[in-house]
Amino acid sequence: MGRLRAALEDFGRMLLFAVETVAWLFRPPFRPELVLAQMAAIGVGSTFIVATTGTFAGMVLALQFQYAMGQLGADGYVGGSVAVALSRELAPVFTALMIIGRSGSAISTELGTMRVTEQIDAMETMAVSPIQYLVAPRLVASLMMFPVLTMLFNVLGFGGAYLMGIYVSAIPPGPFIAHTRELVVPGDILHGLAKSLVFGAAVAVITCWRGFSASGGAKGVGDGTTRAVVMSSISVLVMDYAFTLVSVGGGR
Amino acid sequence: MIQIDDLWKSFGDHEVLKGVTAHIDKGTTFVVLGGSGSGKTVLMKHVIGLLKPDRGTVRVNGIEIDKLEGRELTEARRMFGMVFQGAALFDSMNVFDNVAFPLRERKRGMPADEVRARVIDKLKVVDLGEDVLTKFPAELSGGMRKRVSLARALVSEPQVVLYDEPTTGLDPITTDYVDDMIVSAKERLGVTSMVISHDIASAFKVADRLAVLYDGRIAAQGTPDEVRASTHPFVQRFLSLWFKKQ
Description:
The complex is a heterodimer.
Chain A (H helix, E strand, L loop, with lengths): L1 H24 L6 H11 L4 H24 L7 H39 L2 H7 L4 H39 L4 H11 L2 H27 L4 H33 L3
Helix pairs in contact in A: 1-6, 2-6, 3-4, 3-6, 4-6, 4-7, 4-8, 4-9, 6-8, 8-9
Chain B lengths: L1 E10 L2 E11 L4 E6 L5 H8 L7 E6 L2 E2 L5 H7 L3 E4 L11 H12 L5 H14 L16 H13 L5 E5 L7 H18 L2 E6 L2 H7 L2 E6 L2 E6 L1 H5 L4 H13 L1
């Protein structure tokens, strides 16, 4: 009971932290240079891992779909099926999980170290809001880079599927492309991008909060980072389920 | 300048401050002495509004710091500079950016030339040259980090400088040097200083007035001579260990 109460209190404090961060977004001074630096750290820094994951996810999906659909004589639908799966589900979720592993953990560790070495306190004593200086740029950068990286995942994933479908599984390119155009509608891509925006906001808030609330030296920072990664990953999967449930319930 | 009246603070069931009262005059150095866990850092964090008291008030220049929130508190903090125990330099920034940080953030729009001139000037106050400007905190010794931290605290010309255990972990020569810097900052810049420490030698060297904190209460307060003459058992034991060594 005590642990549940502590968890709920922590969750409540995190929500207040998120509200405060949003409030600081609209107050001067604005620091675009910090947003750009975070876009480079979160976005550019995660490009390789997202590109690699996207390409291989698309390749594996194409092989699996071809194995299943080939038995029904529906090989031509492999490209479209992969594209729908990528754009609606796999791209936003995999991208978010990759960014959590690469950049989310780094955010939590960096802010946690700043907390336990009193750098965040120092910033406050210099009349600078650490939430505005440290958290707000990370939130904005995440909101911008999660959809961009999700699109990258989509494009390279489909490219990987095309390579496998055409050159390994010997599916004719004509039906592969034609059925993809037939199956994928712009709404599928927008659905995935909307998810990625929500995931970006959640991951930024959770990882920054776990860093900000770290205490007790190196172990505290390590524990905070572990909790940040676990909590962000689970949140992404739960939110994905909720998002999908709502959208499927309302029809595509 | 700083008035702390009947300050109480608990963390859970643990009472850390139990009615602390202290007054610090403008342009003087006030040292709070005490053992580990006596509540010294907690007291200092109340002065700059990093913690809120359960009861009691903290006034700085007549402003009730404990009642302020958000932007008002941020504005009030412009009066302060603070030197942290571990220096608390931003490890992602070099020395120049660390010292320039308060100027760039508090006085946005200040020309880059002026920022540079002020940074170099304050580094000179703490006896550091331009050769350290591009170094990162990880490349500096403990004593140099403390000096850069003091330069950062002084660069925006605050009215009050708070020192959290400024000599902890330093060798005797560097300790002596840091003590001189505290005295020099007061004399040259006229700042009001509050130092918390368990270093008795340093405390007696830099203090105009002293307070000994014990079990969340002020056990003795006054000039160094008055505190030394205190009959409080803890104060006698605390000071005698050091005076015996002398």
